[in-house]
Amino acid sequence: MEQNVANTLPQESTTDSLRQWWDGPLPERLRERTVVAESQNTVLRDFMSQFDVRGANVLEVGGSMASTVAGLPDHRRWVSVDPLAQDSSEDRHEVIGKPVEKAGLERGAFDLVFSCNAFEHMTDLTESMLAIRDALAPGGYVYAHYGPIWSGPDGHHLENVSWEGRDLIFWADNPIPHWTHLMLEPEQMGEMLEEYFAPGLVQKIVHSVYHDDWINRRFFEDYLEAFREAGLTLVSLEGQHVVDYESKYPDGPYRHPAFTRLLSQDPELGLNRRFGPKYRNFRCRDMRVVLRRPKTSAAS
């Protein structure tokens, strides 16, 4: 039974957010997408369609697609940095099992940076972006596709929660109505969930949503700020707002008073009252960006 805060999404657009928070020129390509990347391979193919990796040194941030990378045409070197992976080196593919800011990468060594579903997990987003900037050669590009981000409708990114043979995950078995992770305090979320779920499972869900360091809980505008602080030029940005999965809420409605109050109000008004004026875009859940390190900069 679907029981979202409202039937309509907040109407703050990606363009409006950029015009307010990005003090440089708007990117050449800027639009909202309705198509969701179905797999990491889909994202990699999109990256390959935009950039020629022949003869390039490529840095992959937050993943290790070694089996796919092996078939790439004539890349010079592919380095994957992933804190969940083990160090390894084979032919032209190297894996460094550390976060990008701790990987000890050579400055200016990479022509391209590729990243799939990693930016929303970066604990220190600013330090990570500075490390990526430093690893890029002047004039090099960053391609990143990531989400769901914290400020989106399903930004709680529920994952890694199991209970009595049941695996809860935001795209397959998700009991959390849209935006309630933003509008409810952890205690309120727990009380709401306890209407239908065992206390032990509720504790796991609340920890995953509010306390686990698996996600960084950064808002749409925080990413723009981190890109800007790193001195990177925003070439293109595409924000996706479609939730492309079936929600599996409880059989009956949540009756917690804090949640029923949310149902009775305009979500955009409530979110803006709670987080504005700094944060305004609660529509975008998934971001695809292309960034460029200027050919000349103070950090060169």
TrEMBL record:
- Gene Ontology terms for molecular function: S-adenosylmethionine-dependent methyltransferase activity
Where is the stretch described as Disordered? Answer: 1-21
Q: Which Gene3D superfamilies match?
A: Vaccinia Virus protein VP39
Q: Pfam families, from UniProt?
A: Methyltransf_11 (PF08241)
Q: Which residues does the UniProt record annotate as the domain Methyltransferase type?
A: 87-143
Ranges annotated as biased composition (Polar residues): 1-18
Stored InterPro entries: Methyltransf_11 (IPR013216), SAM-dependent_MTases_sf (IPR029063)
Q: Which domain of life is it from?
A: Bacteria
Its name, as the record gives it, is Methyltransferase type 11 domain-containing protein
To which species is this protein native?
Streptomyces capitiformicae
Q: What is the lineage of its organism?
A: Bacteria, Bacillati, Actinomycetota, Actinomycetes, Kitasatosporales
